[in-house]
Design goal:
The complex is a heterodimer. By secondary structure, chain A is mainly alpha-helical. Chain A contains 8 helices and no strands. The chains are: A mainly alpha, B mainly alpha. Chains A and B meet through helix 1, helix 2, helix 3, helix 4 and helix 5 of A and helix 1, helix 2, helix 3, helix 4 and helix 5 of B.
Chain lengths: 189, 172
């Protein structure tokens, strides 16, 4: 039974969406991930900003939400592991991200920073959204049901204790950061 | 031009804190691509009419074109970046990024067409996978969702292959 967290509803929830969005866009810009070069160089292993931002966010947010969830102060919102759809979608996403040079969030933020190519890609994203809507019924019948594991989390799929997963998450992030620091130091020297 | 950038670890930690706030105060994960799909439904209104859009399963059930938390989050993200760019004095209208220019030349038209096509592909992929770098990459991964870690790893691998195919150095 998930706790009902009705702190906000109606108009105040709308304002919260706008306000949280403003903070998110502000942070994406400050992080430098609204730059095409920063994103593409991550995939070429010439810049590690994207990994640093994402893994830190995952660790801090992950531990925080896990603690709040334990106190029944937050719900999990797990997306279904429709494996074929997730894998096909992720393949397309990776191709699109390098050609567009932004992801949907950083693209929207990059428009705010004055990047007109991000705006052209946003128009493309609107078209992509339409194409998906037009093909949704077909995908829902043929793609989404294939290898659908449901709204499953790693601790449920692989039966290790919750806390161990979070220890592993923090350790993995620390390992990645150490490796990145070593690579960056090697390049400066 | 001033450098507006903060330490990426600090920015990541603050996005983590923002996630904690959105989960606890609004009961929502951070996400972006559903809001853009909602906007695509709004853009289809002039062509299909209200009934035409409502007759589409996806826009009727999954991404209803309306002003709600998710679609306003998209608008907020645009405004937040604009705000950051303006107050840091780094707002600048640009068309062709450096890495692109080095590889494909200074043509604005070429870059715009590529960005447009890339935009189509990335959002179709994001909707098929039911999330993007925000919804899966950050919000889903931090909850240890199987779908999200699968997305993260496959997306990254696909991006690496694409980047090396497009931008490999000829004489390296």
């Amino acid at each position: 039974m998930q706790p009902i967290l009705a702190f906000l509803s109606g108009t105040s929830l709308l304002w919260a969406g706008l306000l949280f969005g403003v903070v998110f866009g502000f942070l994406l810009h400050r992080g430098g991930v609204t730059e095409y070069d920063v994103i593409v160089k991550q995939f070429l292993f010439r810049d590690f900003t994207v990994l640093k931002v994402m893994f830190t966010a995952i660790v801090v947010g992950g531990v925080g939400v896990f603690i709040l969830h334990g106190q029944e102060l937050a719900n999990f919102h797990i997306k279904p592991a429709t494996m074929l759809a997730v894998i096909l979608g992720a393949v397309l996403f990776g191709i699109g991200m390098v050609i567009y040079g932004y992801c949907p969030g950083t693209g929207v933020a990059a428009i705010g920073a004055g990047k007109l190519d991000a705006l052209a890609g946003f128009v493309g994203m609107l078209v992509g959204g339409m194409l998906y809507a037009f093909t949704y019924d077909w995908g829902a019948a043929k793609i989404l049901p294939v290898a659908d594991l449901g709204k499953v989390r790693l601790p449920e799929l692989i039966g290790l204790p919750e806390w161990l997963w979070y220890v592993a998450l923090v350790a993995m992030a620390a390992g990645v950061f150490a490796l990145v620091a070593k690579v960056e130091k090697g390049r400066v020297a | 031009m001033k450098n507006p950038r903060w330490n990426p670890y600090l920015v990541g930690a603050l996005i983590g804190v923002l996630s904690i706030l959105t989960f606890s105060i609004a009961d929502k994960p951070i996400g972006m691509s559903t809001g853009i799909a909602q906007a695509s439904g709004a853009c289809a209104l002039p062509f299909l009419g209200g009934e035409g859009v409502a007759a589409n399963t996806y826009w009727a059930k999954k991404a209803v074109p309306t002003w709600d938390y998710g679609s306003l989050f998209v608008v907020g993200s645009f405004l937040g970046a604009l705000l950051s760019a303006l107050i840091s004095g780094s707002f600048k209208i640009t068309t062709v990024p450096g890495v692109w220019r080095e590889r494909f030349g200074p043509s604005v038209a070429k870059r715009m067409v590529a960005a447009f096509v890339g935009g189509i592909v990335i959002l179709y992929g994001a909707r098929l996978a039911d999330g993007c770098t925000s919804g899966h990459g950050i919000s889903g991964s931090l909850q240890l969702a199987v779908s999200s870690w699968t997305f993260f790893l496959v997306m990254f691998a696909s991006g690496i292959v694409t980047a090396f195919v497009l931008f490999r150095r000829r004489h390296a």
